[in-house]
Amino acid sequence: MLMSELAQADVIIAGAGPAGLAAAFACQDEGLKPVVADTSRTASAAAAKGRSAALFNKTIAFLQRLGVWEACQDAAEPLKTLQFVDDTGRIPRAPDCAFHAVEIGEGAFGCNVANADLARAFAAEAERRGILAIAPGRLTGLSSGATGARAAFEDGTRLDAPLVIAADGRNSATREAAGIRSFSWAYGQIALAGSFSHERPHNGVCIEFHRQAGPFTLIPLPGNRSSFVWSERKADAERLLALDAAAFAVEAGKASHFALGHISDPSERAAFPLSTVLVREYGLARVALVGEAAHAVPPIGAQGLNLGFRDVETLAALAGEARRRGEDIGGDALLRAYTAARRGDILSRTLGLDLLNRSLLSGFFPLQAGRGLGLLALGTAGPLRRAFMRRGIAPANFL
Question: Is the dihedral angle over the CA atoms 299, 303, 306, 310 positive or is it negative?
Fold first, then answer.
């Protein structure tokens, strides 16, 4: 690729995962020229390993506009019901609670698709669009001034643009280089992710077992197959990872109380430590944060990637509006507007998921009682149930 092409970029995007490529597509649709710097091919490959993405309807509509969804929709499975089951073994036991998409006039809340299928769809669309993409290695320097930012990379590449989008994950080097302060805490849990076949049909029901070690979630895939995210204390997670496929299937069947019958044919398992990441602001010094560079949450309620795509949609719309008005697309005014637009959605969900995860790990009775009363109210109060479901799949007044 010619350096003259790179020099014409309006936006530098650090990170080539779904959030980074979505940012490239959305910026391009707003008339901006992006360049994508894959700062860690290893991380990009690891993100697709074994995992799936439960995408809500508004996210799917966004991916349709980007031209991505059509390439992976045949490999996706609709999520018609979300069921929460208290499996903590504590007394009093929180009531089970099921939410049905038809209650809010939807055929499904969204769809579940394997990360590998989603990644292939993004790669195909990037090629079709002719997105400028490089693999310059890790970020080694970042500076900003009145008219633009300069990013330097491990292989000596230097890129200039008015706006830098950090989509390089929860340990974002771009966020750190921009001087954006982050706060993080770990839970002592490791999540295992993968998929397996099962004896009975799932009927589009996503089941989330709330256990003392963290949630164990079954998410439907096409056919008699589901993906799972299984949170455990570190020692138990390492034990499960060491099991062969047959022994792991037995353990998964027990953990799921055989809700889908006997388990078989588990995929390769991925594992990742659980933590929460919050940041002080979502844009500073010509850098805007999206995806896990802006927030990271426990894998409860399918919020993480959906939040990241809403970051991208909001940021691209603001940058497009600024371009049309002849304003600086990476200036302080845009970054303040972006922070204001995203803060409520991100903070409410991040802190809510943190509290729910802590309520599972803690034996503190008032916290347990609060979770039980909350589920009881959601299970019995119709207007509250419907409001919770609508709020769960998208914030009010989003775009």
Answer: negative
